[in-house]
Amino acid sequence: MSKWKIRFYLLALFLAGMVTGGILTAQIGRHIMQKIMQPEAMAAHWQHDLEKRLNLSAEQSQKIAPIIIENMKTFGSVLSDQMRLALSNCNARIELELTPEQKIKFAAIEKEQEQFVQSRFNNEPKNP
């Protein structure tokens, strides 16, 4: 086999590995982030961390748990509102650069963005 064929096959193998690794990383990363961003999971992690680092008694832990859960729900709402505001500002600036035909298509994209925010944070639709 010639050196060029060997180099070609090695390059093809390397590129296939890069593509596969990239796809797997994206899929696994998305799954992990969805799991981490759940308020219940965040609250449980935070409470466990506080229990461990502060050596909380069972009574203290019981009293702290509702506080953490309540604030994690608030966190999701605040994050959702901030994301909506950032998207709204970004979209308004983008829209200034679009043609009338593109603006129609862009309106559909904005609806998709709103649905994404709703699905991630389980909030009611809001008008930014």
3D architecture notes:
The protein is mostly helical. The protein has a domain at 37-121. Helices cover 86% and strands 0% of the residues. The chain has helices spanning 3-36, 39-54, 58-95, 100-121. It is flat, with a radius of gyration of 23 Å. The termini are far apart. Mean pLDDT is 83; it is low at 124-128.
Features:
128 residues
- Mean pLDDT, rounded to whole units? 83
Range of helix content: over 70%
Shape: flat
Low-pLDDT windows of residues: 124-128
Element-level helix/strand string: HHHH
Structural class: mainly alpha
Please compute the radius of gyration using only Cα atoms: 23 Å
Enumerate how many helices there are, as a single number: 4
Q: Distance N terminus to C terminus?
A: 64 Å
Largest sheet: none
Please give the number of β-strands. 0
Strand content: under 5%
Summarize the structure.
With 128 residues, the chain is an all-alpha fold. Helices cover 86% and strands 0% of the residues. The N and C termini lie far apart (64 Å).
